[in-house]
Fold each of these.
Amino acid sequence: SFPMLAKKYKLPLGAELPKKPKTLRYPHYVVKIGSNTLPYSRYGVVISTKVNPHATIRNRIKRTVFELIRANNLHMIPQKDVVIIVSPSVDNLGKEALKTMLLRDLINIV
């Protein structure tokens, strides 16, 4: 098994981004970016039951996203709070396709 993204790099549940976060829409997810005063970035992933009714599958998607962030050191970029809201269409994507698209888009924005 892979090491997990440390808790300090995850946004606390219910954390609020600034009033008007930068919002970028993609076919399979929406990315909202705010700023913080920390020397690192924090990430949150939101997956509703519309994506998949099974919690195990939703958690697997969430772990895939956090693993991508950790493996590519995206959490070391300073002063960003990023929320990734996953769309139901992700359920039809493969794990590798999701990772490829998300990495390409996150590197361009963060």
Amino acid sequence: ELDALAWLARQTPRSAVVLAPPAWGGRVPAWAARTTVVGHPIETVDAAAKARLAQRAFAGTLEAAAAQAFLRQQRVTHVLVPRGTGFAAGAGLAEVFANSAVVIYAVSLPR
């Protein structure tokens, strides 16, 4: 886990926006100094709605078109995916980091 956060800190611009599971929302800003879509509930605009969509994405129950729309709307540049989740990397996602615990994808979707 810390390897992935260190990679984000070293290899992504400070302007990067990371989609991570809601449970990781506080870790990414604290350890990698990057913005997350679902962060601390009090500091995240529309936290409950974003958390629901993120949970569906990581459970694998969010349709591909809806997932891509969510990524575009939130201006996500990277997705941090713990292994064992149902997250399905689709078109526009390229693996840029992997270890035994997580995979990080760079997002490249048409706006």
Amino acid sequence: GIAELGTSLRMRMPGMSFTSTVTAATSHEELQWSAKILTDRLFLGQHSFTLTRNDDGSTRAHNSEIFSGVLTKPFEGFFAKNHNAGGYAAFNSALKSRVEARAARTLSRA
């Protein structure tokens, strides 16, 4: 989907896929989304990317997430697995490659 406030995004990562809702989208600054299982009290996952321009012209990407709800504890091992060599590491690596490739194409056209 398109990352605009209120839209739904279909997320696919190794070991999981889910639909989330965009909760914040500011071009070149921030993207946040959340996903729940039935209700926020049962399970709520909130994920965000914040971009900060560095003095040298590069950009720092901060990637964070917060989990809450009664199902958080039972799924703790699953989340830990995906934070290490699993889904999130692969996701971050793929994102970095895509951003750097796009930047290189943009610079080569200038």
